[in-house]
């Protein structure tokens, strides 16, 4: 029976890792994909490598935290309860991925583990309270920082990086499958600024993927590791491999949602979102908080779209030739800035918020990002409180 339960636990951990790959690839590389810097295949490959690096380096520390600090008694994690927790986590994440919405693996996993601890009377409420407080603060910070950047500084960033919406027919970096092995191909660029901006947004996406590996690997393997039946290193490798499979398959839907459906992301916007989100996530990870970078990234995208749409052009903007959100900092076809008269005409038609971020998609994302952790938490509590075979 123990061997059977262990096998089930391993399979469920793989299922959770698969869904983590689907859920977290979008926030990390959705901006780069939406800006046509890289294709979905390249994003999945980068996600797989960077996530594994984060999981194998800093990941063990986070595993120890989730497996030990949140519950006062680690013996609560039996093979049966650990497999059940992982099944609840994986099922809830799959619900979000099926809807094409990247959900917070940290909130989902912590909610399920907390429900187990509450049902067993071993939950450390002080630790949970600190985590939840930062979960509430971080998305608000991301939204307003991105909103301020979009409202006041985005035009200059756009002019500096200079990549228009819809100018590319194919990604800047793509993979060609000719020959024995696939090889990356870099398309022609409009200049060093575009190439430099592309490098920046991909590098920051890699940083976010690395940060995801440091925290989210625990969500897949911590309950199983807490049983003491398996060593940590094999679990980290297994979880990383499962994440890679998810990144190459189910993540395509979340990449589409984060890169295109919520808001149209030119390269400068992609960089803004990636920098703000990664800065918040890395800062929280540094103080031991399992950061929900899915929600931080999503709210940064929404905040940036709102800031760009709500920006009111000033006489100084017109005199300088800086545009309103529809053509912020645009360059003419010959590489020169449009004339002040042309800019004045464009600024006269400032768009509504709906033209820069889709309210219906935004509402769907925000609702699902709250529904999925709630489903995991309530489901786990009902399971461990009222189903006799899981009772304590």
TrEMBL record:
Pfam families: PHO4. The chain crosses the membrane at residues 44-63, 83-101, 132-154, 195-212, 232-250, 262-281, 287-306, 371-391. It is a multi-pass membrane protein. Keywords: Membrane, Phosphate transport, Transmembrane, Transmembrane helix, Transport. GO terms for biological process: phosphate ion transmembrane transport. GO terms for molecular function: phosphate transmembrane transporter activity. InterPro entries: Phos_transporter (IPR001204). This is Phosphate transporter. It comes from Haloterrigena gelatinilytica.
């Amino acid at each position: 029976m123990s061997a059977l339960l262990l096998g089930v636990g391993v399979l469920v951990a793989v299922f959770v890792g698969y869904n983590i790959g689907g859920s977290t690839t979008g926030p990390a590389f959705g901006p780069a994909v939406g800006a046509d810097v890289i294709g979905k295949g390249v994003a999945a490959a980068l996600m797989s490598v960077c996530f594994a690096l984060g999981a194998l380096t800093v990941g063990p520390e986070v595993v120890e935290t989730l497996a030990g600090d949140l519950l006062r008694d680690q013996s609560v994690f039996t093979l049966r309860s650990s497999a059940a927790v992982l099944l609840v986590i994986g099922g809830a994440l799959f619900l979000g991925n099926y809807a094409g919405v990247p959900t917070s693996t940290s909130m989902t996993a912590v909610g399920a583990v907390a429900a187990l601890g509450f049902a067993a009377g071993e939950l450390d409420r002080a630790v949970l309270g600190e985590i939840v407080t930062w979960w509430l603060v971080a998305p608000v910070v991301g939204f307003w920082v991105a909103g301020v950047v979009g409202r006041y500084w985005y035009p200059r960033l756009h002019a500096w990086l200079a990549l228009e919406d819809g100018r590319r027919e194919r990604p800047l970096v793509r993979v060609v499958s000719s020959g024995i092995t696939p090889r990356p191909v870099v398309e022609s660029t409009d200049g060093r600024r575009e190439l430099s901006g592309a490098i920046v947004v991909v590098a920051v996406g890699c940083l976010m993927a690395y940060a995801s590996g440091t925290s989210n690997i625990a969500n897949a393997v911590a309950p199983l590791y807490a049983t003491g039946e398996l060593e940590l290193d094999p679990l980290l490798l297994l979880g990383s491999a499962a994440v890679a499979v998810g990144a190459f398959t189910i993540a395509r839907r979340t990449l589409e949602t984060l890169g295109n459906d919520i808001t149209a992301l030119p390269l400068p916007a992609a960089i803004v979102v990636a920098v703000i989100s990664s800065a918040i996530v890395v800062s929280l990870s540094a103080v031991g908080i399992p950061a929900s970078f899915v929600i931080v990234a999503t709210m940064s995208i929404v905040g940036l779209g709102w800031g760009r749409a709500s920006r009111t052009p000033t006489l100084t903007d017109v005199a300088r030739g800086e545009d309103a959100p529809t053509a912020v900092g645009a360059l003419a076809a010959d590489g020169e800035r449009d004339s002040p008269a042309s800019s004045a005409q464009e600024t006269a038609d400032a768009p509504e918020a709906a033209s820069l971020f889709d309210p219906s998609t935004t509402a769907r994302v925000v609702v699902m990002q709250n529904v999925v952790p709630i489903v995991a938490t309530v489901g786990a509590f009902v399971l461990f409180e009222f189903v006799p075979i899981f009772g304590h």
